[in-house]
Design goal:
This protein has 880 residues and is α/β, with parallel strands linked by helices. It has 25 helices and 36 strands. It folds into five domains: 182 residues, Aminopeptidase; 271 residues, NAD(P)-binding Rossmann-like Domain (Rossmann fold); 140 residues, Succinyl-CoA synthetase domains (Rossmann fold, 3-Layer(aba) Sandwich); 179 residues, ATP-grasp fold, B domain (D-amino Acid Aminotransferase, Chain A, domain 1), CATH 3.30.470; 68 residues, ATP-grasp fold, A domain (Dna Ligase, domain 1), CATH 3.30.1490.20. Helix content is 34%, strand content 23%. Helix 11 runs parallel beside helix 12 and helix 21 crosses helix 22.
Length: 880
């Protein structure tokens, strides 16, 4: 592809001086094959590298890019390409191993009478074509162009180069094309749309999943620091890789020995004659840099650094860790650690145990991510004791590169993983976590232990995550989810031969929101056949959604017969069944259904030490199942939303430097989402106030609008029910004298009602939140506000209306007429969509909204706009 403006060299008589560009324009990104590539703006010092890059392009690639042979770049060409202003002319380079592998650029078409358009072009090194670099460059160019005020990109493409047209089309843009026989002219707007975000997120998921797959599915492994000394970590990790039965070649690296554990050893990774996919580094921190150089030279794809001595020891270690990550990424690699326990993959064709843990669980359908190595060993031991099978496991240590978000992307598409467990000490990118978690939770349960959200566990539940208080609860829920179906409702039938324990279970269920359908007391001497018959009856009863079997073994009987009865009775059932069988935790062998390899599979019955824990796990699973059944917010959008026009208003306001919009602009923006503010006029004198009231109609209201007078409980800044022009004039004079304001509002009177307040805006961990409660300081003081993540479905909005403790005042409390709650819910849903769909909106406040029997009147709306807090999850793809 070429620029349309092919300016002769003699006309290229100067450029504006280079200006600094924001640091966050540079980014590490993942190509479609999962390898890391560094993107950054071009600088004049890149001239020599750019000439080398151009010289290595094939004749065909140069022809498609420049519409001719163009074998070399002249000094003037290089000067023009590398000396840019980062606004009217912009270029990104893709860098790997300190070499340019791709370039994308745009140039303003202002000289052709198109001040909001720029021409865009790309070129990718032949050996790196097909790695998805074109779409990534386009995303980053479009983001910078949007910040610089451009609205459209144009491009000229040779008709024999359909691949380049596909770059634009596959990025989600709506293309306008024209054809003149030899070239295709392409134009498209660059404003982000829902379609583009879907495409971007899908590409991100695929590339991040591929990068983790490179780590967890290596074809060969090198253990650097492999040792014959059983006291050293290099001995433990090599022994575990071998004992785990890794299906590929294993290469010990030890400079002093020719073999380790009977396997030929090599002095360095460079000396290994075959390719190495994964390097496990178990050497002192001080020599990791030297080992890294060897790995980079060898072309290793991924590294697991179990060595300690990095950021966990202080600032010196942090500097070493930062250098390690920078070097690893600059060569296209991914890193687990440092200070990591390691990684494991139980997939039959891999069988990788690259950890320091002496015991790992068998194969299963649960993926687990944690940070702490010591905690990881305890976690793996507990999972193995419970016979909770794992698909894969990652303990990331200092989490310098690979994170829980990366693992979510991988497990989302991993057919072997049905349940995701995360033990998070912190959220590296909270906004991205909330986006990924709610996506993954639609198909696979996501269970999280974290203290980072504190009392905001309910926020996690709102986007489908199951928050757990600790490892015990985490495994309790995981065993139900991994081996049993989801319940279709909250009702549980308890089957027991101990009435006391059955009643304990029922009491626990009442506390946890479980509805006990009934207790079937079989009495202590019940035979196995009676247990089986009771289970069969429960599975056939449509009023029952789950079954709990509480079994206390009679004296001198075979418990295996009872286990077989429970399995037989539940076989083929679509209802989950849990038990307190012999007070065993996990999946007892007697209650297991196993595959040909002896691995427990779905249909196995989980057991818990106490009835309370069994009920608690069922309650968590039931809440998750209810979330899945609820209508999705994007499945039932209200009418009257013009998102495109709203985006234009917001961008114009941000470009103009606006923060808090004036009242007129805020009302106009709200109207684009179907939120009608009760008609008002801004006036500056009494005559204008009278004219406004005459136009709006009587009775009217006159209101002070400066911040200190809005929403005052004493309502001193408002004059209501003004019947005529004389009252309006008097009110204007009174309020200007009282407040000192030079501008007031004249507003139509709304029907009398209950004042409520709706606010929405940024949250550091959950993205954006919306809150609802009664208007006024009392609700603020006592914290009587219901909060929910956005967007809201219609049903969720209706539930939010009833959530505050004071919501009874909306339902006719004290003999008053009930208000129109559906009208309030409609406003709530529209506000939630506004803040969710428009990343330029920082906060929204509707206060008061008068809720009356005949509807809801919005009297005031305040909106603040501004750039998104972080480009890390709102802009083009990038690693954190």
């Amino acid at each position: 592809m070429a620029w349309t403006r092919r300016i002769p060299v003699t006309e290229q008589t100067g450029t504006r001086a280079s200006s600094p560009f924001p640091a966050d324009w540079a980014a590490d990104v993942l190509a479609s094959d999962g390898r890391v590539v560094h993107l950054r703006p071009i600088v004049p010092a890149d001239a020599a590298k750019l000439a080398e890059f151009h010289g290595k392009l094939s004749e065909r690639t140069r022809y498609l890019r420049y519409f001719g042979p163009y074998p070399t770049l002249s000094e003037r060409d290089l000067l023009r390409m590398t000396t840019i202003d980062y606004r009217e002319r912009m270029a990104f380079l893709a860098i790997l191993d300190d070499q340019i592998i791709a370039m994308g650029l745009y140039e303003s078409l202002d000289g052709e009478g198109k001040p909001e358009s720029a021409e865009v072009a790309f070129v990718v090194a032949d050996e790196h074509q097909g790695r998805g670099l074109g779409p990534i460059l386009l995303e980053h160019l479009a983001a910078v162009a949007g910040e610089s005020g451009f609205k459209r990109f144009e491009a000229e493409v040779l008709s024999e180069n359909p691949t380049m047209v596909a770059v634009f089309r596959d990025a989600g843009y709506q293309l306008e094309r024209s054809f003149d026989g030899s070239t295709i002219h392409v134009e498209f707007t660059i404003d982000p749309t829902d379609a583009q975000r879907v495409v971007r997120n899908a590409r991100e998921r695929a590339s991040e999943a591929r990068s983790v797959a490179n780590l967890l599915r290596p074809e060969s492994v090198a253990v650097i620091g492999a040792s014959t000394d059983p006291r050293k970590v290099g001995n433990a990790v090599l022994a575990n890789v071998i004992a785990g039965g890794f299906t590929g070649p294993v290469f010990p690296v030890n400079a002093d020995r020719r073999s380790v554990m009977g396997i030929r050893a090599y002095p360095t990774v460079r000396d290994i004659p075959d390719p190495v996919d994964l390097a496990i580094v178990a050497v002192p921190a001080g020599v990791v840099d030297e080992v890294l150089d060897d790995c980079l030279a060898k072309g290793v794809k991924s590294m697991v650094v179990v060595s300690a001595g990095f950021s966990e020891i202080g600032s010196d270690g942090s500097e070493s860790e930062n250098r390690l990550v920078e070097s690893v990424r600059s060569h296209g690699m991914r890193l687990v650690g440092p200070n990591a326990l390691g990684v494991a993959n139980n997939e039959v064709g891999v069988r990788l145990n690259a950890t320091l843990a002496p015991r790992i669980p068998g194969r299963g359908a649960v993926g687990f991510f944690c940070q702490s190595g010591a905690l990881g060993i305890a976690i793996l031991d507990e999972a193995a004791r419970r016979r909770l099978g794992l698909s894969s496991f990652v303990s990331a240590g200092n989490r310098a590169d690979l994170s829980g978000n990366d693992m979510l992307q991988y497990w989302d598409s991993d057919a072997d993983t049905e349940v995701v467990l995360l033990y998070l000490e912190s959220y590296g990118n909270p906004r991205k976590f909330s986006r990924l978690a709610r996506h993954v939770a639609r198909s696979k349960p996501v269970l999280v232990v974290s203290n980072d959200l504190g009392e905001d566990d309910e926020l996690l539940r709102q986007f489908g995550v199951i928050p757990c208080s600790g490892i015990s609860e985490l495994f309790d829920c995981a065993t139900v989810l991994a081996y049993q179906p989801l319940p279709a409702g909250p009702r549980v039938r308890i089957i027991t031969n101990s009435l006391v324990l059955g009643e304990m279970a029922a009491a626990a269920g009442a506390r946890d929101g479980i509805e006990v359908d009934g207790i079937v007391d079989l009495e202590p001497g019940a035979a196995p056949a009676e247990f089986e018959a009771a289970v069969v009856a429960a599975t056939a009863d449509d009023s029952v959604h789950a079954i709990m079997a509480v079994f206390v073994p009679p004296v001198a009987v075979s418990v295996q017969d009872y286990a077989g009865a429970l399995l037989t009775g539940s076989r083929g059932s679509a209802k989950p069944i849990v038990s307190t069988f012999l007070a065993v935790d996990g999946i007892p062998r007697g209650l297991s259904i196993v595959d040909d390899g002896g691995v427990p599979v779905r249909g196995s019955i989980p057991s818990f030490a106490t009835p309370e824990r069994a009920v608690s796990a069922l309650a968590q699973v039931s809440r998750y199942a209810k979330w899945l059944r609820a209508p999705r917010a994007d499945a039932e959008l209200p009418a009257g939303i013009d998102a495109a026009r709203a985006t234009g208003l917001i961008e114009s306001a941000i470009d103009a430097g606006a923060g808090v919009l004036d009242d007129g602009a805020a009302a106009e923006l709200a109207a684009r989402y179907g939120i009608a503010v009760t008609e008002f006029r801004t006036v500056t004198d009494a005559d204008a106030a009278i004219a406004a009231a005459d136009e709006i109609g009587y009775p009217a209201a006159v209101k002070a609008v400066s911040p200190q007078w809005r929403r005052r409980a004493d309502r001193e800044g408002v004059r209501l029910d003004l019947p005529d022009k004389h009252a309006v004039a008097a009110a204007f004079a009174d309020l200007t004298a009282l407040t000192g304001d030079t501008e007031l509002h004249v507003q139509a009177m709304a029907s009398k009602g209950v004042g409520v307040a709706i606010t929405a805006g940024d949250h550091p961990a959950a993205g954006s939140l919306i809150s609802f409660g009664l208007s006024g300081p009392l609700s603020d003081l006592v914290g009587d506000r219901a909060v929910h993540v956005v967007p809201l479905s219609a049903a969720q909005a209706r539930e939010l209306v009833d959530a505050p403790l004071s919501a009874a005042l909306l339902s006719g409390y004290g003999g008053s007429a009930p208000v129109d709650k559906d009208a309030i819910a409609d406003v709530l849903q529209r506000v939630s969509l506004l803040v969710d769909q428009q990343p330029g909106v920082r906060t929204v406040r509707l206060d008061p909204v008068l809720a009356a029997p005949g509807g809801a009147a919005v009297l005031s709306v305040e909106i603040e706009v501004g750039p998104v807090p972080s480009r890390a999850d709102s802009g083009p793809r990038r690693l954190r």
